[in-house]
Model the fold of this input.
Amino acid sequence: MSFFNPVFAFAFIPFVVIIYNLFPKKLRAGVLLAISLLFFAFVSKWLIIYLLLSIISVYVTGISISKLEEKKKEALKTVEKEEKKSVKASYKRKEKFVLVLCIIFNVTFLFFFKYLNFFAVNANLLMDYFKIGHRITIVKHVAPIGISFYTLEALSYVLDIYYGKIEADKNILRVALYLAFFPQVLEGPIARYSDTAKSLYEGNKVTFESFNYGYQRILYGFAKKLIIADRLNIIVKSVFEDFNSYNGFTVFIGVAAYMIMLYMEFSGTIDIVIGIGEMFGVKVPENFRQPFFAKNVSDFWTRWHISLGLWFKDYIFYPVSLSKSMKNLTGKAKKKLGNHYGPLVSGSVALLAVWLLNGLWHGAGWHYIFFGLYHFFMILMGNIFDPSVAKVCEKLHIDRHKKGYRIFQSVKMTFWVFIGELFFRAPSLTVAFAMLRRMFDTFSFRVGELFTLGMDRKDYVVLMIGLVGIFIMGIVHEKGINVREEISKKKLVTRWAILYAFILVILIFGAYGQGYVPVDPIYADF
Amino acid sequence: MEELIEILEELQPDVDYETVDDLVDGRYLDSLTILSLISEIEDAFDVEIPTVEIIPANFNSAAKMWELITRLQEED
Amino acid sequence: MKKAIKGIIFALIFCIMVEAISVALLPWEKVKKYGLYNTSAYEIVAEKDDSVDVIFLGDSLVYSSISPMEIWDGYGYTCYDCAQPAQIMPYAYDYLKVAIDSQHPKIVFIEANILFRDPQKLPLYKKIAYRIVNYIPIFKYHSNWKKYFTHDKNSWLNVNKGYIYITGIKASKKDPFNYMDVNDEVEVSILPENKECFDDMVSMCEENNIKLVLLAVPSQKSWSRSKYNMVKELANEKDIEFIDFNLDNDLEIDWATETKDKGNHLNYWGAKKVSDFLGEYMESTGLLEDHKNDPYYKSWHTAYSIYKEKLK
Done:
């Protein structure tokens, strides 16, 4: 299932909007939920049971935690001051028990669908190695769509209640809508309950303006995907399928093409999700912020798949690094290593946890784990060497805020990300290393080879123009200008002309139909 | 307040802490720096910052951080 | 209300623009003669008048198994695959009617698998997609913009003549000797409406003096013994020929390397075998003549050289 499907864009969305608007405000949330569940059932059939189980489990957990809170308040009123601490602690323990139970329940499903096979395969390898005559049978399970996304949302909901950031919702429909909202369930963004639940449930009418505004964002997503990503797919497929028959330069271009394709496909999908959200008056959080303008790898991850990064930061990084044992460690380390490097010790332990999980979240495979560890390493290195780099720059009289230096930083950062994405895409670690070697061993500027990959000169021209266009849009966005707002201020003729031109360019220059193979939704498999 | 700004300047000298009010949202402070900052603040002002309080709103400006510190000191 | 009117005007102007671009992306003289929809739906109308000898009707089995350029190279006959994905009998009838409007084919082949397709059962979204592609030609022909940016005089030439060139290989795991019997588990029948449609086509061919031939290309998934028997019976009844490659004629298809999707469709190497056999058959009928030295068919030589270039 892909959003980049004419039936979805031109028929399904308008159909949903019309049905939704036909109902009175009070019933609209129910309509939206019904459509979302039907959508899920259409894609994943009976596996919808797992989504429903997740919804029920977090709903019940939320309610029980809030009941325990109430009881605690009652209890605190009656006890003496000295006992208060122990009462608080005992209730905290009970709440924690409920929370952990719910987390285990949800993570078990995720583990079952995504990781069981990986562990079974590796366990078998181990047993073979030690000559234990036993094998675990490998059964392939098809996972419910978006399980990696909605599970994280579900966990954030109960964790936020536990931390006291939000109140438990007494209305299960609202919780269900928050987790199952149809555009979001496929590839995120991983929103928080406080971001979307309330506005989703309000049943705002889709007005002419909100439809128009949202649809423009959807079109932008279509342009990224159809004009650029699907063209790059030709290069990516050829190079990754048979990298040994191409020279280093072509392999380099192939990997770079993958990096850009991933961005265009994923951020294009998110554009569609956000656009649909805007139609219904829901502010789905942004997931990308011009990632390739980042100044280092750490910065990149605050601009790329933002919602995932924030999730790991809030629910893994800080809880781990600020846990009691880690705080003790920090105290000790500070005495020995000083104020900059001291906290880095506990920080890096937490960071390691984050990146191991981040790698695993993307899939069960050693190359994904390597991908995570690689980023851990790059970010840690960046942090360790930052003070020295600052000193060197000072000595050499380089202003680190100048444009030239910023561009240098972005290029350097892009190169590190490039290596990371190579490991991400390659089918295995061995292949990734072989490709890396091929890139450097046989590098020569044989540009002609690029035309043997399945794209002709005209395709390359369209691709380049498209990339330049997106790049300019990136600069405009980085400056904080809202392009759609600017367009809406123009006269009707100009406005319409821009829209017509945009749609027709997508229709004519999109890489669809005979001779092109569309990119499958990459993140939907994670 | 001055002590706080000193701490901040030691960790990340490139920012004018009197005026900037998007330290987290504007990515002046990354998560590892915030970690250092928290441990510094906890040492210097004798407070304990719980995980729940680590949200951008509390760390976006020196003034906000100061608010948080005084609030936590009072709660103790 | 004002907004609704605005929306309608916006959509109207948009439709006009799409139509205008569609005309620009199709061979426009033909659009003038046959209208936009016929030109976009039936590729054969772009061929020179009265230049096609043989027409193949059918579904994806046709455009994956028969390459007219191979037959041109071997015998100098001009063939055309008038095939559509999941073609149903009424569509085939329409296609034949449009085709004989500008062409005078001597032989028409019908890949008989379409006799077993229930026209009613065609999924709704496929029906809609068929209409959309025909009525909004831009979806199918948008890549023709490239033709405006080339000096090549032959850029509008249809090289493959309906055939779709596929080199992918997905080996079949089925037993190459008994699949016709294994497939028999599925019950099949020729629906009365398909039969009626077929009768109409038979008489259309008779009126136009066309030899009609039924055909069954090699497919381990689409063909079965009972389908074979029914077509055989129909052919006897109408006294027309039936060429079958699953039981009667053994082309020695290597199902490990000559299929693109585990035995359902052939790839290029399989298609070459089918095309060579059919060329030989056409020669044996004595109905056709070699056009290789006829200047009227010059463009076929050009097309063949482009086709051959692609095969490398």
